[in-house]
Amino acid sequence: MSASGPAAPASGPGRTAKLRTENLRKVYGGHAVLDGVNFSVAPGESVVVVGPSGTGKSVLIKHLIGLIQPDAGKVFVDGTDFWSLYALQRGELRKKFGMAFQEGALFDSMNVYDNVAFPLRRTGRTPAQVRARVSECLELVQLPDVGAKRPSELSGGMRRRVGFARAIAHQPEILLFDEPNTGLDPIMTDIIAEVIVGIRKQLRATIVTITHHLASARKIGDRLALLFGGHILFEAPPEEFMSSRDPAVRQFVEGRAQGPLTVESERLTRKKIWEAR
Amino acid sequence: MLTRLFEAVGRAVLRLLEEMGRFFQMLGRAVAWAPRPPYDIPEWFRQMGRVGVDSIPVVFLTTLFTGMVLALQTYHGFQRFNAQSLIGSVVALSLMRELSPVLTALMVTGRVGSSMAAEIGSMRVTEQIDALEALATEPVHYLVVPRVIASILMMPLLVVMGDVVGIYGGYFVAVQLLGSNPASYVESSFQYTDMNDLTSGLIKAAVFGLIFSVIACSKGYHTEGGAEGVGRSTTQAVVVASLSILLTDFFLTRLLF
């Protein structure tokens, strides 16, 4: 594994991880979806978390921004233990984040313009500044003329890009993309990947993306991490990831039905796979 | 057999406690967030419109017919011992103290409480509530506080309207249809009523507004499981809020007597 290895101590000098989790554990209905996830992202890095559906990728990303409280383990943002803070401080810390949700999660009571303007209006900018920034963001996601439309009038791909525009409007330091191109046609899937690359160039943000689309993952990420069975099984830069001999990675890259990643409902089987690796 | 019975009872008790816990948790969060800026005044007014103005037709018809029926029924009862002159005060008292607040609350719960639960519930299942949090906006502050404040403020106003309309409905039936003396009807309406009758009804109305809005918002907020979950939350919101209103009504009446 060429991953960043054990993360630097949060308070230590030099390079502090922008985002870091420590033995993250979350149980749903008696089943540990996350079972000791140790994961860290350096400032300015773009990490893509891949894995089969239903392995808790979305649960992991929601832990990073504190939408879900872990049952055990810690989440550090810029070295600050997220859940050691008071609710109000957590709200402040969240301002460093922008998150794009799976289906966009646009507020359907507002039009597109108001959606993108939402994070801006709460930061005391003048209406002119808000207007300028909203059109800038909509242009960045290649949707300059949709401001007056309602979210329900947009296609799936457009909704997600508006979701991106809303996530980046307040110029966050950390960007999270939850399955940005799941369920889209191949062309739109690629457009989405390009948009994320474009956003990265412009914002220089730290980015965590979740997807199971490998071509996009290679385009977006400096590093790919495979999540399965509640752990990060493997992480490496894209090329190394694609050519890895790890049986789990090979199965995922080649898209085979049989192999160590095949989801068994039985927890025990998964544990055996993990130990035999 | 017996264990199953105990299990069922235990489950019911647990659910009741969980329900109450969620209610007070949501109430506490709403109270804690209400005084904090930013105050989204336009949103408060929009919600007041939805709770208050939009409910006028329903409340108008409900209280009008209640007043009319009340006059009819008391007439048939009271004429047996020649007490028709008291119809006015019976109608006015029962409307102001009891029927107008309770029926208004039940109607508004069905109309507005259901839509609150459905709206917030569908925001939950489409991740819009997560999105609010991700944008550093407290969902309770943004969604729940305006709805609860609007409900507490508008319910008493609706009840005042209901009192007036209901009393007029009673007057119409007694005087126009049953031929009572208009002057003595009006006099008896106000002879035995005092300010306390009105205010106790208004206090009830405000409390009912608080109850149904907090229950509806909390049901919506804790929605799980897609479109089906939204439907379930909506139904539960109306049922639980209506029952809570009737229950609270008894204790409030004891208290405010």
Structural overview:
- The complex is a heterodimer of chains A (277) and B (257).
- Chain A has ten helices and ten strands.
- With 277 residues, chain A is of the alpha/beta class.
- In chain A, 36% of the residues lie in helices and 22% in strands.
- A six-stranded mixed sheet of chain A has the order 6-7-8-3-9-10, with helices on both faces.
- Chain A has helices spanning 57-64, 87-94, 112-121, 127-140, 156-168, 186-203, 214-220, 238-242, 247-254, 267-276; strands at residues 19-28, 31-41, 46-50, 72-77, 80-81, 97-100, 174-178, 206-210, 223-228, 231-236.
- Chain B has one domain (40-256).
- Chain B has helices spanning 2-33, 41-51, 56-78, 87-125, 128-134, 139-177, 182-191, 195-221, 226-256.
- In chain B, helix 8 packs antiparallel against helix 9.
- The termini of chain B are far apart.
- Classes of the chains: A alpha/beta (277), B mainly alpha (257).
- The interface between A and B is medium-sized, with 24 and 13 residues.
The number of E-state strands of chain B comes to 0
Q: Structural class, judged by helices and strands of chain A?
A: alpha/beta
Would you report the number of β strands of chain A? 10
Q: Which regions of chain B contain 5 or more consecutive residues with pLDDT less than 50?
A: none
Query: Number of helical segments of chain B?
Result: 9
* CATH fold name of the domain at 1-96 and 174-184 and 205-255 in chain A: Rossmann fold
- Proportion in β-strands of chain A: 15-25%
The overall average pLDDT of chain B, rounded, is 91
Work out the oligomeric state of the chains in this entry.
Answer: heterodimer
Number of domains of chain B: 1
Q: What integer value in Å does the Rg of chain B equal?
A: 21 Å
Order of helices and strands of chain A: EEEHEEHEHHHEHEHEEHHH
